[in-house]
């Protein structure tokens, strides 16, 4: 989390947006063998917890039940060049959006795991053009075999810390120039967040 309070956001609104736009995060936890990390799709649970699944063979999987963990969801990010400022007598910086979630993790039962998977499939398939795919197209044999290879988890979030660093220290005009520069550099996602923040 960036120390400047200027770069804070409404964590609940930011979480909802990042889950919708990104839907993927990084889980960190301390283990007897040192810190470990896993990368996984994320979903909101029915009671506001953060659900995810890992392969049974992932080194973090056996360590997570009832463990304290940290989940980081990264939004758009990118380099900001001094060439996009009125006064080039400055230094480069990096704009980014990130949310840290801390809490205790528990294992989902099979019904919870199934509910999470079907919800994720429906959400992500719904964003794609054309005829959607449904889990009903997978045979029971294949589905059951895949299900046996993963473990579902849910984090009860006890703390959250946001960073939405979008050149807030710059003037409105300069922020528009930076957004245009980001588009020209091939980063329209970060430019879009900046333009929304300026409006």
Automatic annotation (TrEMBL):
It comes from the Bacteria. Coiled coil: none annotated. InterPro entries: Split_barrel_FMN-bd, TR_PAI2-type. Pfam families: FMN_bind_2. This is FMN-binding negative transcriptional regulator.
């Amino acid at each position: 989390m960036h120390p400047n309070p200027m770069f804070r956001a409404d964590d609940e609104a930011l979480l909802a947006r990042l889950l919708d736009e990104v839907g993927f995060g990084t889980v960190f936890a301390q283990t007897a063998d040192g810190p470990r990390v896993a990368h996984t799709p994320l979903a909101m649970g029915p009671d506001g917890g953060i659900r995810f699944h890992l392969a049974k063979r992932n080194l973090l999987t056996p360590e997570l039940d009832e463990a304290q963990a940290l989940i980081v969801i990264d939004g758009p990010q990118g380099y900001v060049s001094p060439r996009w400022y009125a006064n080039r007598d400055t230094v480069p910086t990096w704009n980014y959006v990130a949310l840290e979630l801390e809490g205790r993790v528990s294992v989902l039962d099979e019904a919870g795991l199934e509910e999470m998977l079907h919800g994720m499939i429906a959400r992500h398939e719904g964003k794609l053009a054309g005829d959607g795919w449904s889990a009903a197209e997978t045979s029971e044999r294949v589905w059951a075999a895949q299900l046996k290879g993963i473990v579902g988890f849910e984090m009860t979030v006890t703390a959250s810390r946001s960073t939405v660093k979008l050149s807030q220290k710059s003037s409105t005009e300069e922020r528009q120039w930076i957004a245009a520069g980001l588009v020209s550099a091939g980063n329209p996602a970060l430019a879009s967040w900046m333009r929304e923040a300026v409006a």
